[in-house]
Design a protein that fits this description.
By secondary structure, the chain is α+β, with helices and mostly antiparallel strands. It is built from 11 helices and 4 strands; from the N terminus they run H-H-H-H-E-H-E-H-E-E-H-H-H-H-H.
Protein backbone atom coordinates (compact mmCIF):
# COMPACT_ATOMS: atom_id res chain seq x y z
CA UNK A 1 0.00 0.00 0.00
CA UNK A 2 1.28 3.40 -0.89
CA UNK A 3 1.74 5.67 2.11
CA UNK A 4 2.04 8.79 -0.09
CA UNK A 5 -1.67 9.60 -0.12
CA UNK A 6 -4.33 9.01 2.52
CA UNK A 7 -6.18 5.70 2.41
CA UNK A 8 -9.77 5.65 1.14
CA UNK A 9 -10.45 3.34 4.09
CA UNK A 10 -11.40 5.83 6.77
CA UNK A 11 -12.77 4.53 10.09
CA UNK A 12 -16.26 5.42 8.81
CA UNK A 13 -15.74 3.53 5.55
CA UNK A 14 -14.41 0.51 7.44
CA UNK A 15 -17.48 0.52 9.70
CA UNK A 16 -19.76 0.47 6.64
CA UNK A 17 -18.55 -3.00 5.62
CA UNK A 18 -20.57 -6.16 6.14
CA UNK A 19 -20.21 -8.46 9.11
CA UNK A 20 -19.75 -12.18 8.40
CA UNK A 21 -23.46 -12.82 9.06
CA UNK A 22 -24.46 -9.92 6.79
CA UNK A 23 -22.11 -11.21 4.05
CA UNK A 24 -23.75 -14.65 4.15
CA UNK A 25 -27.16 -13.01 3.70
CA UNK A 26 -25.95 -10.69 0.91
CA UNK A 27 -24.21 -13.21 -1.35
CA UNK A 28 -26.05 -14.83 -4.25
CA UNK A 29 -23.76 -17.79 -4.90
CA UNK A 30 -21.89 -20.47 -3.00
CA UNK A 31 -23.39 -19.84 0.46
CA UNK A 32 -23.10 -23.59 1.11
CA UNK A 33 -19.37 -23.45 0.27
CA UNK A 34 -18.77 -20.45 2.54
CA UNK A 35 -20.58 -22.23 5.37
CA UNK A 36 -18.79 -25.55 4.73
CA UNK A 37 -15.34 -23.91 4.79
CA UNK A 38 -16.25 -22.02 7.96
CA UNK A 39 -17.38 -25.21 9.70
CA UNK A 40 -14.31 -27.13 8.52
CA UNK A 41 -11.75 -24.52 9.58
CA UNK A 42 -9.94 -25.81 12.65
CA UNK A 43 -8.17 -23.43 15.00
CA UNK A 44 -5.92 -25.14 17.53
CA UNK A 45 -5.72 -23.81 21.10
CA UNK A 46 -2.24 -22.53 20.12
CA UNK A 47 -3.68 -20.65 17.13
CA UNK A 48 -6.35 -19.02 19.30
CA UNK A 49 -3.80 -18.08 22.00
CA UNK A 50 -1.45 -16.59 19.38
CA UNK A 51 -4.24 -14.55 17.81
CA UNK A 52 -5.52 -13.25 21.15
CA UNK A 53 -2.00 -12.28 22.19
CA UNK A 54 -1.54 -10.37 18.93
CA UNK A 55 -4.88 -8.55 19.30
CA UNK A 56 -4.05 -7.65 22.91
CA UNK A 57 -0.77 -5.99 21.91
CA UNK A 58 -0.82 -2.15 22.10
CA UNK A 59 -0.72 -1.88 18.30
CA UNK A 60 -2.30 -5.24 17.59
CA UNK A 61 -4.75 -6.15 14.84
CA UNK A 62 -8.08 -5.14 16.37
CA UNK A 63 -9.75 -4.74 12.98
CA UNK A 64 -9.58 -6.59 9.66
CA UNK A 65 -11.04 -5.53 6.34
CA UNK A 66 -11.75 -8.23 3.75
CA UNK A 67 -12.33 -7.84 0.02
CA UNK A 68 -13.99 -10.65 -1.88
CA UNK A 69 -16.62 -11.89 -4.35
CA UNK A 70 -18.94 -14.86 -3.90
CA UNK A 71 -17.95 -16.63 -7.15
CA UNK A 72 -14.24 -16.96 -6.31
CA UNK A 73 -12.92 -20.30 -4.94
CA UNK A 74 -10.03 -18.58 -3.11
CA UNK A 75 -12.66 -16.39 -1.40
CA UNK A 76 -15.08 -19.13 -0.41
CA UNK A 77 -12.13 -21.05 1.03
CA UNK A 78 -10.18 -18.14 2.57
CA UNK A 79 -12.80 -15.70 3.82
CA UNK A 80 -14.44 -18.25 6.16
CA UNK A 81 -10.97 -18.93 7.62
CA UNK A 82 -10.56 -15.21 8.33
CA UNK A 83 -14.07 -15.03 9.82
CA UNK A 84 -13.26 -17.88 12.21
CA UNK A 85 -9.91 -16.31 13.16
CA UNK A 86 -11.49 -12.88 13.75
CA UNK A 87 -14.23 -14.36 15.94
CA UNK A 88 -11.77 -16.42 17.98
CA UNK A 89 -9.44 -13.44 18.47
CA UNK A 90 -12.01 -10.70 19.03
CA UNK A 91 -11.07 -8.80 15.87
CA UNK A 92 -13.74 -6.70 14.18
CA UNK A 93 -14.17 -8.09 10.63
CA UNK A 94 -15.77 -5.97 7.90
CA UNK A 95 -16.26 -7.39 4.41
CA UNK A 96 -16.54 -5.49 1.14
CA UNK A 97 -17.46 -6.71 -2.34
CA UNK A 98 -14.37 -6.03 -4.43
CA UNK A 99 -16.14 -4.96 -7.61
CA UNK A 100 -18.22 -2.34 -5.78
CA UNK A 101 -15.11 -1.05 -3.96
CA UNK A 102 -12.34 -0.89 -6.53
CA UNK A 103 -10.90 2.22 -4.88
CA UNK A 104 -10.15 0.09 -1.81
CA UNK A 105 -8.92 -2.82 -3.92
CA UNK A 106 -6.54 -0.58 -5.84
CA UNK A 107 -4.69 0.29 -2.62
CA UNK A 108 -3.86 -3.39 -2.11
CA UNK A 109 -3.04 -4.81 -5.52
CA UNK A 110 -1.10 -8.06 -5.67
CA UNK A 111 2.35 -7.35 -7.10
CA UNK A 112 1.17 -3.77 -7.65
CA UNK A 113 -1.13 -4.77 -10.53
CA UNK A 114 -3.60 -7.60 -9.81
CA UNK A 115 -6.99 -7.25 -8.09
CA UNK A 116 -6.55 -10.61 -6.37
CA UNK A 117 -9.01 -11.79 -3.73
CA UNK A 118 -9.51 -12.41 -0.94
CA UNK A 119 -7.47 -9.56 0.47
CA UNK A 120 -7.31 -9.07 4.24
CA UNK A 121 -6.12 -5.70 5.61
CA UNK A 122 -5.27 -5.43 9.32
CA UNK A 123 -5.63 -2.26 11.39
CA UNK A 124 -4.99 -1.23 14.98
CA UNK A 125 -7.82 -0.12 17.31
CA UNK A 126 -7.19 3.48 16.26
CA UNK A 127 -7.30 2.45 12.59
CA UNK A 128 -3.61 2.48 11.75
CA UNK A 129 -2.63 0.16 8.90
CA UNK A 130 -0.53 -2.83 10.02
CA UNK A 131 -0.25 -5.14 7.00
CA UNK A 132 -2.26 -7.06 4.44
CA UNK A 133 -2.47 -10.60 3.08
CA UNK A 134 -3.59 -11.50 -0.45
CA UNK A 135 -5.33 -14.40 -2.22
CA UNK A 136 -3.94 -17.71 -0.96
CA UNK A 137 -1.05 -19.13 1.05
CA UNK A 138 2.26 -19.82 -0.67
CA UNK A 139 1.68 -23.56 -0.19
CA UNK A 140 -1.48 -23.36 -2.33
CA UNK A 141 0.44 -21.50 -5.04
CA UNK A 142 3.08 -24.22 -5.02
CA UNK A 143 0.43 -26.96 -5.20
CA UNK A 144 -1.79 -25.52 -7.94
CA UNK A 145 -0.46 -28.20 -10.26
CA UNK A 146 -2.60 -30.67 -8.28
CA UNK A 147 -5.64 -28.98 -9.84
CA UNK A 148 -4.38 -29.00 -13.43
CA UNK A 149 -5.78 -32.39 -14.41
CA UNK A 150 -9.21 -31.44 -13.10
CA UNK A 151 -9.15 -28.00 -14.80
CA UNK A 152 -8.34 -29.63 -18.14
CA UNK A 153 -11.70 -31.41 -17.98
CA UNK A 154 -13.60 -28.10 -17.98
CA UNK A 155 -14.03 -28.00 -21.77
CA UNK A 156 -13.92 -31.73 -22.52
CA UNK A 157 -16.38 -32.96 -19.89
CA UNK A 158 -18.04 -30.17 -17.88
CA UNK A 159 -20.07 -32.58 -15.74
CA UNK A 160 -17.01 -34.65 -14.75
CA UNK A 161 -15.08 -31.42 -14.17
CA UNK A 162 -17.75 -30.22 -11.72
CA UNK A 163 -17.83 -33.58 -9.93
CA UNK A 164 -14.04 -33.76 -9.50
CA UNK A 165 -13.67 -30.08 -8.59
CA UNK A 166 -16.38 -30.37 -5.91
CA UNK A 167 -14.61 -33.43 -4.51
CA UNK A 168 -11.26 -31.57 -4.51
CA UNK A 169 -12.86 -28.71 -2.56
CA UNK A 170 -13.87 -31.17 0.16
CA UNK A 171 -10.61 -33.08 0.17
CA UNK A 172 -7.35 -33.06 2.13
CA UNK A 173 -5.41 -30.63 -0.12
CA UNK A 174 -8.13 -27.96 0.21
CA UNK A 175 -8.22 -28.54 3.98
CA UNK A 176 -4.43 -28.15 4.14
CA UNK A 177 -4.71 -24.83 2.27
CA UNK A 178 -7.21 -23.59 4.88
CA UNK A 179 -4.85 -24.56 7.71
CA UNK A 180 -1.91 -22.98 5.95
CA UNK A 181 -3.89 -19.73 5.64
CA UNK A 182 -4.22 -19.68 9.44
CA UNK A 183 -0.50 -20.36 9.93
CA UNK A 184 0.65 -17.83 7.34
CA UNK A 185 -1.56 -15.00 8.66
CA UNK A 186 -0.43 -15.59 12.24
CA UNK A 187 3.20 -15.58 11.05
CA UNK A 188 2.66 -12.34 9.08
CA UNK A 189 1.03 -10.63 12.06
CA UNK A 190 3.78 -11.80 14.42
CA UNK A 191 6.35 -10.22 12.09
CA UNK A 192 4.47 -6.90 12.09
CA UNK A 193 3.11 -6.57 15.65
CA UNK A 194 5.21 -6.15 18.76
CA UNK A 195 3.75 -8.04 21.72
CA UNK A 196 2.84 -6.09 24.85
Amino acid sequence: MSQERPSVVTPERFASGLTWEEWLKAIRRNRDKFEYNYQETVLTPEDVAALRELVAAPHGPAKVLALGEDWCPDVFRGLPVMAKMAQAAGMELRIFFRDQNLDIMDEFLKDGQFRSIPTFVFYTRDHRYICHWIERPALADSEMHLLQEILQLREKDPEEFRRQYEAFQRGPVWARWRQETVREIIELLRAKVRPS
